[in-house]
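### Sample
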Amino acid sequence: MNKWSNLIRKIATGITVLGSILFIYAIFNYAPIFFVNNETYEYVSNDFLERETIRAAENIVETDLNISETNNINLEDVLLYPKRPEIGEEIGILDIPVINAKLPIFHGTDEDELDRGVGHYRGSVLPGEPDHSILSGHRDTVFRELKDVNINDELIVTTTAGQFTYVVVDIYIVDAEDTSVIRPTGKPTLSLTTCYPFTFIGNAPERYILEADLVDFQLNQ
């Protein structure tokens, strides 16, 4: 009888130890799905600003800016945002018709913003401005269905400046530490970024990118 009791006690102890190990593993590896690494966002913003500084110093001039076919306004000649937004301020709505999603956009990519909706990288231009605007969201919340968006699908951003319609021209995946997504484009471009793979448990090793070009806009009076 003592033999069986000792065996059962050892099995129970083993199960307890294994359960504790699995619990600790889940805390450190599954939780990051809900809490995106803010240091990555800060790195992206700083890198973007550094590249913009270099471009300005070298007086690099980009041409062939997108101009709406419905009017002759060049966005490079328009001051779309006389007042720059504060961190945490809602700056607009992202409409993705193909997945029937309308998502609030907040300036900044800290957890405070990403927990409320889509975050706008502070180091990138605002939607509609003639360069690269970058929006990010959690893969398990606002961008859960991003994988169902395809090339030629529309992304519509409405802000205080007006309504800007972009069309997806490229979809690609990069390493989590690859900052090529933040490159200046010299024309109104919108990129959506989220962690990848979508079903990965733990710190996702890659980023899923949708890149879109501006094809039309209607400015507020």
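Residues 25-70 have pLDDT under 50 and may be disordered. This sample (Sortase A) is used throughout the tutorial notebook.
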